[in-house]
Design brief:
- The chain is about 20% helix and about 30% strand.
- The chain contains eleven helices and 27 strands.
- The chain has a seven-stranded antiparallel sheet.
- The longest helix has 28 residues.
- The radius of gyration is 30 Å and the shape is globular.
Length: about 500
């Protein structure tokens, strides 16, 4: 009798235990998170929890609410329409084309064009920032505000290296954007893009920052282009160029400049010039008339998918940027830096790519002192470097008449001049956006010996002659190793 009661009690206990475990497991599985990425039980309300998290940079509004930022940026975005006049260009025979070398000049006719882009108001008295490529070559620039009023704009200054331009309209009490800080822009941060895409009225799109200091090799206008962009997936199309990219507080963090697309229209990514570079360029143009470009005085290894492996062999530290060489007259050499050093930070801010380093240096001017952290022989070091200008000094370089030509110029040494059998001249280096590129087929390496019949023996003489040349500029010179004298005629559009 006792054995039967004991077995019955044991069976009841087992049944109750199994039932309890079953009910408990069903109840626990119905509770929300937390779960690992990829969990099959991820609850729907998990998204609602995440949506209450505010954005970075002390932004108080939810990242899903863009009404305040949109209301700030829409009145400040402007529509820019340009008129590019027709041109007739006469070029000499191409020295690299044997069928054209003795055939005299060629005559080209470029019909007039109308173009459209965007810009952003940065002051209440009518200063506007846009992209240089939006207004390049234009004889007339018309700016239309959000309220429908139109004004003819004047070009105050431009910088092909950063693809930026400053315009001015005769208007007052305008709404304008406040500058943000692009150094604080983080991947994953919500942003808004504004402008006049596809000739539509003011349009605002939203996305996130998907990369910073992105190198895309899109700007070939200047001699020393800055290639470091904020990348976003906010929808941007032709016509957005020059328009603002803002954070959810409505602060300007970039100027829209390019899109990544196989078709020319939006396909996923857009790129903006960081606002810290914009601030520096605008201030330089308004203060000095031209951009005061600072140089660290180092050469870097250019990276791509083919050189990445070899670079990892040169840099065993897993961070920083390897110096390939130093300019003996540059600031880095004066501070004791050498080829093989690995730059890891500028003023305490880490750098891990050429584009990041380029972006940091582009925000300074010649004469500024910066703290450079680098590794040599496995040891961390710090030096104070005084940045210098293109000529190796620290003084202000005012706007030059040579800027419009769009090329690098170097005074020929006496030794090189003697070898060429000339008394002196100016060698043409990298040719960027400008009159030489748009109106001639001049090649790098050309040596200028005369301008409008007057001899040229230095860059200073060349600048003076171009400045006094008026509308017509005739450049005369030679190509080393090729017989003959070559002439290039340029019509000064300005």
């Amino acid at each position: 009798m006792k054995i039967r009661q004991l077995l019955f009690t044991l069976l009841i206990s087992v049944f109750v235990s199994l039932t309890t475990l079953y009910l408990y497991s069903r109840y626990v599985n119905s509770l929300p998170g937390p779960f690992q990425n990829g969990s099959q039980n991820l609850p729907i309300n998990y998204v609602r929890l995440a949506s209450n998290i505010t954005g970075g940079n002390n932004q108080n509004s939810s990242p899903s609410d863009f009404e305040q930022a949109a209301s700030i940026v829409i009145p400040t975005a402007v529509h820019i329409k340009t008129t590019i006049p027709p041109k007739e260009i006469t070029q000499p025979g191409d020295i690299f084309d044997p069928f054209n070398f003795f055939g005299g000049g060629q005559r080209y006719y470029i019909p007039g064009q109308m173009a459209s882009g965007s810009g952003v108001i940065i002051s209440d008295n009518g200063y506007i920032v846009t992209c240089n490529h939006v207004i390049s070559g234009a004889s007339k620039i018309v700016v239309t505000l959000y309220n429908g009023k139109s004004y003819q704009a004047k070009v105050i200054g431009r910088d092909p290296n950063t693809d930026l331009a400053v315009l001015k309209i005769d208007a007052h009490n305008l709404p304008y954007l406040l500058y943000g800080n692009s150094d604080n822009v983080k991947v994953g941060q919500w942003v808004l893009a504004a402008g006049y895409p596809l000739d539509l009225e003011t349009t605002v799109t939203a996305g996130i920052v998907s990369a910073t200091s992105r190198e895309i090799d899109v700007n070939h206008q200047g001699s020393y282009p800055v290639d470091a962009y904020i990348q976003t997936d906010a929808a941007v199309n032709p016509g957005n160029s020059g328009g603002p990219l803002v954070n959810t507080q409505g602060q300007l963090i970039g100027i829209l400049a390019a899109i990544a697309s196989p078709t020319g229209s939006y396909a996923g990514y857009a790129y903006a010039i960081p606002v810290n570079i914009v601030k520096k360029v605008v201030n330089d143009i308004l203060t000095y008339g031209s951009v005061q470009r600072a140089f660290l005085g180092v050469q870097l290894y250019r990276t791509n998918t083919f050189t990445q492996a070899s670079l990892s062999n040169r840099n065993p530290y897993g961070k920083g940027v390897v110096i390939a060489g130093v300019d003996p007259d540059g600031g880095a050499a004066a501070a004791g830096m050498k080829a093989g050093d690995v730059i890891t930070a500028i003023n305490g801010e880490p750098v891990n790519s050429e584009s990041e380093l380029m972006e940091k240096i582009a925000s300074f001017k010649p004469g500024d002192k910066i703290n450079v952290s680098f590794i040599r022989d496995g040891k961390e070091r710090n030096v104070l470097v005084t940045l210098r200008n293109q000529e190796g000094g620290t003084s202000v370089i005012h706007n030059s008449a040579l800027n419009k030509l769009g090329a690098e110029f170097m005074t020929l040494s006496k030794k090189d001049a003697n070898q060429l059998g000339i008394s002196g001249g100016v060698a043409v280096g990298n040719i960027g956006d400008g009159l030489i590129k748009s109106q001639t087929n001049m090649r790098e390496g050309f040596v200028i010996t005369r301008v409008n019949g007057y001899p040229v023996r230095s860059v200073a003489e060349l600048e003076k002659l171009v400045e006094n040349a008026g509308r017509h500029i005739q450049i005369e010179g030679i190509y080393p190793g090729i017989d003959g004298i070559f002439y290039y005629d340029i019509e000064n559009e300005e």
